[in-house]
Amino acid sequence: MKLKIAAPLFSALLAAGCQQSAPPPAVDVKTLMAGKVQPTAEIYWNSVQYISDAAGSRKIEPKTDAEWARTQEAAATLRQLGEQLRSPGAAAGRGNDWLDYAQGLSDVAKLAEQAAKERNPDKVFEVGGSIYNVCSACHEVYMTVPGGARPAEPASSGTK
Ligand code: HEC
Fold it and tell me: What range does the record give for the signal peptide (predicted)?
């Protein structure tokens, strides 16, 4: 009898101890994605666009030094974000493929940086596609909410 009463108390203490000794991962991937990865990728992707509509076909591309620098900076930031995703705080509990995807992001971002440095719009555009593929590849395996790069609704919203 004594044991039965003591057991819940003991596990409660254990749980409390666990919470103290195991802090949450240093990198909150969801926040990093929404706050950094997505907006940075958008800066890069938006910098070169081929638009075809009723008004005809036209190309948007960086023109000034500042615009090219912005594109290059976005690429450099994506490279660093790939590094951050490889850090223990982000990679803990994931498979080795996580590190490969994160490395893939850094690798392709390096090409993106080079393309911007060369001021080559076609290359910026092309590498932009490769960046997207890396995002999607990791999401296919690790994003628990389905629906591509922008899971707009939390999974629980379906119950409404
Ligand atoms: C190494 C793996 C990995 C790579 C590479 C990656 N992501 Fe993610 N991303 C995730 C994971 C995991 C989630 C789900 C996070 C969660 O909900 O806890 C996510 C979620 C997101 C979300 C949803 C955030 C939210 O608020 O729910 C966006 C947007 C996103 N990623 C954009 C991108 C873009 C853009 C790229 C490429 C430039 C990219 N991701 C590359 C792993 C990755």
Answer: 1-21
